[in-house]
UniProtKB/TrEMBL annotation:
UniProtKB keywords: Cell projection, Cytoplasm, Cytoskeleton
UniProt keyword Transmembrane helix present: no
High-level lineage: Eukaryota, Metazoa, Chordata, Craniata, Vertebrata
Localization in the cell: Cell projection, Cilium; Cytoplasm, Cytoskeleton
InterPro entries per record: Enkurin_dom, Enkurin_domain-protein
Protein name (database record): ENKUR protein
Gene: Enkur
Basic and acidic residues bias (residue ranges): 40-60
GO cellular component, one term: acrosomal vesicle
GO molecular function, one term: calmodulin binding
Region (Disordered): 19-60
Length: 231
């Protein structure tokens, strides 16, 4: 087959030749010469502020230096702090002496009250009383235990074994015998020659079903009382 040639080959070739090396020049590049009138002037590069706007009408007037009629000056009264402190000390309640305990020859002392030697906790009104949060927690634990025991008893009742009455036992026995007769008839109708895998599996399945039915019938006839567990 002929080699594939694109129909845009000539167009692409023309565009490549047209735009090839446009930046190359012979000699200095042709740049527009600035005009003589556009010379650099003094302070021309400094930032200029925006023109100041004229003050609008309705603005608040500047505060006058003359006080208004409703002005009341604050009169500062000199206080004698020495006399005030002396009066406070005279009228004040005297401090109670603090009890200390000295336990060394060098005179090392410490406060007696926070040391634990003063029996102040046994003098409280609520000393020896069980806290409210402990009582509440014990009640919650007791309630949870009762709920758990109730749920266990309910679950045991659900799982309790049910006694099978004589009528139910007779009806179940009759149904099992009828099922055994149908399965036995099916077994007798099986072919003598079991040459395929399906025939072997089917025969084994029917034999297992017969054995299970015979076992159930024997168990029901052998035992007088039958109990069934609730699932």
């Amino acid at each position: 087959p002929l080699r594939y040639i694109s129909k845009f080959r000539t167009f692409v070739k023309h565009e490549a030749e047209k735009n090839k090396s446009q930046w190359k020049t012979m000699g200095p590049a042709k740049v527009a010469v600035p005009s003589p009138n556009d010379f650099l002037q003094k302070h021309s590069k400094e930032p200029k502020l925006a023109p100041r706007k004229k003050e609008q009408d309705g603005k608040k007037l500047p505060a006058l230096s003359v006080p208004q009629r409703t002005y009341h000056p604050v009169i500062r009264i000199k206080k004698n702090f020495i006399n005030r402190n002396a009066l406070a000390v005279i009228k004040g309640v005297p401090k109670k002496p603090r009890h200390f305990c000295v336990d060394s020859r060098q005179g090392d002392k410490y406060l007696l009250e926070p040391s634990g030697l003063v029996p102040k906790y046994i003098k409280k009104k609520d000393y020896g009383v069980t806290p409210k949060y402990v009582i509440q927690r014990n009640e919650e634990i007791k309630r949870e235990e009762e709920e758990y025991e109730a749920s266990v008893l309910e679950e045991l009742k659900k799982r309790a074994m049910k006694h099978l009455s004589d009528e139910e036992k007779t009806s179940i026995l009759q149904a099992l015998k009828k099922n055994w007769e149908e399965t036995n008839r099916e077994f007798q109708c099986l072919p003598v020659l079991t040459d395929t895998r399906y025939k072997k599996m089917h025969k084994a399945e029917v034999e297992m079903k017969l054995k299970q039915l015979e076992h159930d019938i024997e168990a029901l006839e052998k035992h007088k009382w039958i109990y069934i567990a609730n699932e």
